[in-house]
Amino acid sequence: MLKQRLLTAAVLIPLVVLAILKLPTIALMALLAVIVMLTAWEWLQIVGFQSVFAKVLAMVVWLIIAAFQSSLFFPIEPGLIAGGVLWLALTLLVVLCAHKPLPKLGQQLFASRWFGLVMAWLVLAVFFYSAVWLHGRHGGEWLLLHVLVLVWLADTGGYFAGKRWGKRKLATHISPNKTWEGVAGALVLVSLWSFAAWQFGLNDGISLLHWWLLAVMTALFSIAGDLFESLFKRAHAIKDSGQLLPGHGGLWDRLDSLLAAVPVFAAMLVLLGL
């Protein structure tokens, strides 16, 4: 399994990096739209939309709403802040349910396919707009790549530190294998990367302290994104969101941390006035 995961990552990571650095924002937007739609397909399948017609209809409605929002709705900055608030609320939910089951009302909500439909739209929409906004800034392709590297390193540090030293459980009910030692390992790698990125000039004029805090907060929310997906999958008694990526499961399984990290990073940049 590990060999298959590494092989898939070795193929995908260079392609992702090239796409972010070389594609114009409009082309990256089209690519992200495809990725978001494929992830939405998995999400709808999980929550009980089995009919191809129903899933296609839901995506068409999403695209119409997205087009309406992008052309007629409020300025992008309030939307980005709203994305950060959404993940603050979802993180609070993860914290409350870390060591105990969802309350009865929560179980009913998570079991509802209409709640799943709304959550999928909200989470994927704020990710899409945040990623496009980041990439479209001056030097934004490097900022977006910085967030991806940050999340990859957080996942790597969390995995190996947790495997080597993990004892204290982070969220026994949601993801029993995750530990606080894994969180510490993630933050160590993220901190080292943030200092290196600041030295390389990727900081967009932010002081070293603020840049480091931004990286740490983004990493913590990325862990919350991973746990939120695990909470959702546990409510529907499944292990992987799909089988699209050998050794990794589905797209949602690979994007879970990024779905939180990118909107939170973008929202904090807006709050910092950048």
Question: How would you sum up this structure, described in words?
Answer:
With 274 residues, the protein is an all-alpha fold. The protein has one domain (2-271). Helix content is 78%, strand content 3%. It contains ten helices and two strands; from the N terminus they run αααααααββααα. The protein has helices at 2-22, 25-47, 52-72, 76-96, 104-111, 113-136, 140-165, 180-199, 208-235, 251-271; strands spanning 169-171, 175-179. A two-stranded antiparallel sheet has the order 1-2. Helix 4 packs across helix 9. The radius of gyration is 18 Å and the shape is globular. The termini are far apart.
Q: Brief description of this entry?
A:
The protein is mainly alpha-helical and 274 residues long. The chain has helices at residues 2-22, 25-47, 52-72, 76-96, 104-111, 113-136, 140-165, 180-199, 208-235, 251-271, and strands spanning 169-171, 175-179.
Shape: globular
- What is the N-to-C order of secondary-structure elements (H for helix, E for strand)? HHHHHHHEEHHH
Helix content: over 70%
Distance between the termini: 42 Å
What is the topology, as strand order, of the major beta sheet? 1-2
The value of Rg in angstroms is 18 Å
Q: Give the count of structural domains.
A: 1
Largest sheet: 2 strands, antiparallel
Structural class category: mainly alpha
- Give the averaged pLDDT, no decimals: 84
Low-confidence stretches: none
